[in-house]
Amino acid sequence: KKTTVDGITFDSKHEAYRYCELDLLLKAGKIKDLELQKEFELIPAQYEWVENGVDRKGQSKRKKVCVERAVRYKADFCYITEDGEYIVEDVKGFRTKEYAIKRKLMLLVHGIKIREVKV
Q: Quick one: which of 71, 86, 97, 102 has the most CB atoms within 10 Å?
């Protein structure tokens, strides 16, 4: 159920509750640089050149076309702890197959292990 806190709309009550916890930690100086909904690119978009007709001089024109869109992961929260550790959090009610693959790609591509906050 969508929930709004501090003018920010969250996908669930649990995510909103976790935001409130992190906001308190931020105000207490226990964490810093809190970011919401940060995107990470896991696989870049893929393009190919295709023929696009002929120009006025009779030469063929080409244009770059996206054949596969980029794969991205959007983290619920990112922050830095007092110890300087960079944390990426995801509030999870249940794991989807898509999330499991993206979690593995985050570790492979960015070297980041996602911290799951269970509901």
A: 102
Q: What is the mean pLDDT of the chain?
A: 94
- Considering Cα of 93, then 95, then 100, then 102, what sign does the dihedral take? negative
Residue type, 109: V
Among residues 78, 82, 84, which one has the least CA distance to residue 114? 78
Distance CA 32, CA 49 (A): 44
The span from the CA of 7 to the CA of 10, in Å, is 10
Question: pTM for the complete prediction?
Answer: 0.83
> Which residues, other chains included, contact 43 with Cβ-Cβ below 8 Å and sequence gap of 6+?
70, 71, 105, 109
Cβ(19)–Cβ(36) below 8 Å = yes
Alpha-carbon dihedral 84, 39, 75, 1, rounded to 10 degrees: 140
**Size of the chain, expressed as the number of residues it contains:** 119
Encode pLDDT of 92-114 as tens digits.
988 899 999 999 999 999 999 99
**Distance (Å, whole) CA 55 – CA 90:** 51
